[in-house]
Write a structure and sequence with these properties.
- By secondary structure, the chain is an alpha/beta fold.
- Helix content is 48%, strand content 20%.
- The chain has a single domain, classed as Vaccinia Virus protein VP39 (Rossmann fold, 3-Layer(aba) Sandwich).
- It has helices at 4-21, 24-27, 42-57, 74-83, 94-107, 145-155, 180-188, 196-205, 217-244, 249-253, 257-266; strands at 64-68, 86-91, 113-117, 130-136, 156-169, 208-215, 270-279.
- The radius of gyration is 18 Å and the shape is globular.
- The model has no long low-confidence stretch (mean pLDDT 96).
């Protein structure tokens, strides 16, 4: 089981990997890219994820949005610039926090976006502070999903929305004999990947009710395959580097995640979904 400190260390230790392989300085994204017939390249795919989420969320001008697990701030910048909403991003990674603030200054979005170093299960914000909470591939790190749901309920205004884009375990599939999901989780500091119904049970119990769900597994498949190719390209260099250098805990095996997540996806062990919950 990973602690909050473990998860922060994962993102601190692997930020340079995302800069190299995930076009971080251009795309400002740590999530999977969305591919369709109009997507021309990987950077566009990463931005398209934000665009699809914004269309589903229906974020309005001047609304207050919390990006829970904001990474390096790319989604927060996108929401602010495209919807005119005021966005607060929170992360537990010190390096992501520094990166996001630097980019905020470069983009001159200081009046629209701010960042805080906070745990999304126990924030410092007042009750009913936000119209929307976004969580892109971040809730899957929470060991206690109900703690996140409880905090999201507290922070949302009545009628507010929680938008989650994340990995969900596929129900009723053959056993994962190769432990692919477990190995992937260990590479990324993830908690156990739950099914959609398990999420629904946790969130309903805390007063958040599912309003819509969208399966975009087919749209992120190409990103997953790209990550697998990066694993193949990086396999030998990584083994050689690790043999001659002292490497941090997560950075040492990070390249293996490309293999595990792709093999698990090909076997149908997990799905990628966008789910919207509403506070009644």
């Amino acid at each position: 089981m990973f602690t909050t400190r473990d998860i922060a260390d994962y993102y601190n230790q692997t930020l340079n990997h995302y800069q190299q392989w995930w076009r971080l300085d251009r795309a400002l994204a740590v999530h999977y890219g969305y591919w369709d017939g109009e997507t021309k390249n990987f950077v566009e795919a990463l931005e398209k994820t934000n665009r699809v989420l914004l269309e589903i969320a229906g974020t309005k001008k001047e609304e207050r949005v919390l990006d829970a697990g904001c990474g390096v701030g790319g989604t927060a910048f996108y929401i602010a610039s495209q919807a005119g909403a005021k966005v607060t991003g929170i992360t537990i990674s010190e390096r992501q926090f520094e990166f996001a603030n630097r980019k905020r200054n470069e983009l001159k979005l200081n009046d629209w976006v701010d960042f805080k170093l906070e745990d999304y299960t126990a924030t410092s914000f007042a009750d009913n502070s936000f119209d929307q909470i976004w969580a892109i591939e971040s809730v899957t790190s929470a060991q206690d999903k109900r703690a996140f749901a409880k905090e999201a309920f507290r922070l949302l205004k009545p009628g507010g929305k929680l938008i989650i884009a994340d990995y969900f375990r596929t129900p009723d599939v053959p056993p994962d004999k190769d432990r692919l999901l477990e190995k992937w989780q260990n590479c990324w500091g993830l908690a156990e990947i739950l099914t959609l119904n398990e999420y629904f049970n946790h969130f309903r119990n805390e007063g958040l009710f599912p309003e819509s769900k969208k399966d975009i597994t087919a749209n992120i498949y190409r990103s997953s395959a790209l990550m697998y190719r990066y694993y193949l390209f990086g396999l030998i260099p990584s083994v050689i580097y690790n043999a001659f250098h002292k490497t941090s805990r997560f950075a040492k095996n990070h390249y293996k995640s490309g293999k595990y997540q792709y093999k698990a996806l090909k076997k149908g062990l997990w799905q990628y979904r966008i789910v919207v919950f509403r506070k009644k």
